[in-house]
Design a protein that fits this description.
Protein name: Hemolysin-type calcium-binding repeat-containing protein
Strand content: 25-35%
Number of helices: 1
Largest sheet: 14 strands, mixed
Subcellular location: Secreted
Structural class: mainly beta
Pfam families: HemolysinCabind
Shape: elongated
Main location: secreted
Helix content: under 10%
GO molecular function, one term: calcium ion binding
Length: 300
């Protein structure tokens, strides 16, 4: 059973309505202690188990600041440039419109499994500790996973995404994105646009297409090439034993390699799809042609 530690009776901009246990009066603050204007409305619920403390926050207008507590919080921004921090617990933070800043946890060592959703603005999203799911949506976003195995998606816009520690999934989406896996065994998918993919330490999978640059860095990496009509992919640091896979379209059957200026150019049915820098001795036998049937048969 929840005890009411804070109460929201109206969602008017700037209304902060709080009530303590018992017969305390509800108070409204139209201006915070800094004199910068009204604070956002919020609702705090507390269960007998302190781990289930919840904070519900909503910003309707203006630039708001919402800070969660030790429990599982739901914080939602509004039309302004909002700052949202979940604190401990498994939190959900939604920036909506504006250029928002969202922190899943207060510090990198915290372990909440948070859901962060940006919006159409240029957002700064940091999951920090825990296994987080972070989505930038529209705009040119900066996304950090932190510790844990994170799922990070940029969406439309030219995004900058880094996984940091853990085995992360990074997806750039549309736009010219910069993806860095960090440590751990990461999967990087550039999506549409001219992207830069950096695997970092660990055994990474780098998936790119026309206009993309793929740099595995340390570890035993795998490069997956998704051919398209508007250019070729570039692999910058193929090491001995690392794999290259090329996705075949309907009717694609012949894979070949040409040596050119010290590099290896991979061709699919005579059309260049990728260039491997400094790999003049690469042969077609070292490259795998993957069909849709092969992908369907692969273990999940």
């Amino acid at each position: 059973m929840f005890l009411l530690a804070g109460f929201l009776s109206a969602l008017a901009a700037g209304a902060v309505l709080q009530a303590l246990e018992g017969d305390d009066e509800t108070a409204r603050d139209d201006e915070d202690e800094t004199g910068r204007g009204p604070s956002p409305p919020k609702l705090t619920l507390q269960a007998a188990d302190p781990d289930w403390m919840q904070t519900l926050g909503l910003v309707e207008t203006g630039d708001g600041v919402l800070v969660g507590g030790a429990g599982h919080d739901l914080l939602t921004g509004g039309a302004g440039d909002d700052d949202l921090a979940g604190g401990d617990g498994d939190d959900t933070l939604r920036g909506l419109t504006g250029d928002d800043t969202l922190y899943g946890d207060d510090a990198a060592e915290a372990a909440g499994h948070d859901l962060l959703q940006g919006g159409p603005g240029a957002d700064y999203l940091a999951g920090n500790g825990g296994n987080d799911t972070v989505t930038g949506d529209g705009g040119d976003d900066r996304i950090f996973g932190g510790d844990g195995d994170d799922d990070l998606s940029g969406g439309p816009g030219d995004d900058w995404i880094t996984g940091n520690a853990g085995d992360d999934l990074l997806r750039g989406g549309a736009g010219d994105d910069d993806l860095s896996g960090g440590s751990g065994n990461d999967t990087l998918d550039g999506g549409a646009g001219a992207d830069s993919l950096h695997g970092g330490a660990g055994d990474d999978i780098l998936r790119g297409g026309p206009g993309d640059w793929l740099d595995g860095n340390e570890g035993d990496d795998r490069f997956e090439i998704m051919p398209g009509p508007d250019g070729i992919a570039h692999i910058t640091d193929l090491a001995p034993g690392e794999r290259i896979l090329v996705a075949a379209g309907a009717g694609d059957t012949l894979l070949s390699v040409d040596a050119e200026d010290g590099d290896a150019v991979i061709l699919l049915d005579g059309v260049a799809v990728a260039r491997v820098l400094g790999a003049e001795g690469l042969t077609a036998s070292a490259i795998e042609l993957v069909t849709a049937q092969d992908e369907a048969a692969a273990p999940g």
